[in-house]
Design a protein that fits this description.
Distance between the termini: 121 Å
Number of helices: 1
Shape: rod-shaped
Helix content: over 70%
Radius of gyration: 36 Å
Largest sheet: none
């Protein structure tokens, strides 16, 4: 090979390798960016689920308190009837 041919071959190899490395870097960047975004969305969904669970628990506690009051009133009323 002549010196000129070797120079062209060397430049072609360097160009191809540079293109491949840049392409891989872009693919990896795209993948990790998407992965990070989906991770953020999952975290947001989990926070919303936790808030929903807390709200449901608060409502259930209120329901249980109401049921206890109603049961107490029923017992109290039944005791009043028995005493009459």
């Amino acid at each position: 090979m002549t010196e000129k041919a070797q120079s062209i071959t060397y430049k072609a190899i360097v160009g191809v390798l540079t293109t491949v490395i840049c392409g891989l870097a872009y693919v990896l960047w795209f993948f990790f960016t998407g992965f990070y975004q989906s991770t953020l969305e999952i975290q947001k969904s989990l926070q919303e689920i936790k808030l929903s669970v807390v709200r449901i628990q608060a409502e259930m506690m209120d329901e249980n308190k109401v049921r206890q009051i109603v049961r107490y009133e029923i017992r109290f009323n039944s005791k009043e009837r028995e005493s009459k």
